[in-house]
Amino acid sequence: MVRLTFIVGAGKLGRQRYEEGAGRTVTTTLRALDFQEDHGASCVVECAGTYKLQHDTGKNLKTVVVFPKIAVSTASSKNGNDISNTQPAEPSALSLEQPSSPENVCAVSSLSVFSNILKNKCPSWSQKKGCLQVLQEIVERIKLCESKLLKGNLLTPSEQEWYDTISLDNISDKEILVKKEMAAHVENGRITMREKKSLLVQVSEKIEKLEREIADASRDNKVKKVETLINLKNKAEERKKFIEDITPEAPHRLKHHLEIIKLRQELKPLLRLEESCKGRLLTLKETTTLARKDEILREIQKLEVNVDYTL
């Protein structure tokens, strides 16, 4: 993504250097070109066609930051490599400083962009659960930054830049959206066998916890609390029965499942050859043939973890 910054004004000491209506002229032109204002926009592909107004207090400048509309080229680069298939580096556990990482995209994207990401990149209940965990980790990261500032400690430049682009309310809205979509999966029976087992474990643990709390409350003669806990237990048991009656659907196919199947078919005779060669020295031909086995395994592993984070 390319970021274009237009200086359209300044603070009190430097405002006379700029035309009074410069900012309005730029934003009016952008809207005429179908650009959308997005206060949470950042330098990622998903924000193409948006702009935002900023006031750089450090330089005392008012700017309009534009993220232009782009078209991904399918042409090959000069050295012959296909740039259309270039994948981002594998992210760390929470690589928020990497603009193109899925974690950072989830953090800085607007709610409408995030909704499209959730629909296209997280089609299953498990993937949405993983996305929710990332959002919760982002909230913890924000709280750590705030705690650091409250103690009078400065953030690092990368932390400060990231912190300035994140809205806690925006993250909260995203969490609500993800939870709503996860609930819809269960209500509509769109879960796999593994997800069904996971949900049953969760609800069973909740029932056991409520039973212990009911026993403790009964022992202390807390009648109202017992009634409340019994109602919660009944609802949990109804949910458990509902989940048990769900007929699970087949797992979602991997993005490159056809290529993986083809490689696994090629792998089968090599595994049989390797088994038949145990206990003796390999011939040169056998050694050369079996060298392909490791290549195939690496290709399969690469395809299994290869994820396209762009829309």
Attribute tags:
single chain; 311 residues; alpha+beta; 4 domains; four-stranded mixed β-sheet
The largest pleated sheet is described as:
4 strands, mixed
What is the mean predicted local confidence, pLDDT? 82
Within the largest sheet, what's the order of strands?
1-4-3-2
What's the domain count?
4
Total beta strands? 4
Q: What share of residues is helical?
A: 55-70%
Number of helices: 10
- Uncertain spans: 74-94
Ends: how far apart?
13 Å
Specify the overall morphology: flat
Tell me the structural class: alpha+beta
The whole-angstrom Rg is 27 Å
Listing every helix as H and every strand as E from the N terminus to the C terminus, the arrangement reads EHEEEHHHHHHHHH
Give a summary of the structure in a few sentences.
The chain is an alpha+beta fold and 311 residues long.
Protein topology:
Layout: E1 4-10, H1 22-32, E2 36-37, E3 50-56, E4 61-67, H2 102-108, H3 111-121, H4 125-150, H5 157-165, H6 168-187, H7 193-219, H8 223-244, H9 257-276, H10 284-305
Parallel strand pairs: 2-3
Antiparallel strand pairs: 1-4, 3-4
Helix pairs in contact: 3-6, 4-6, 7-8, 9-10
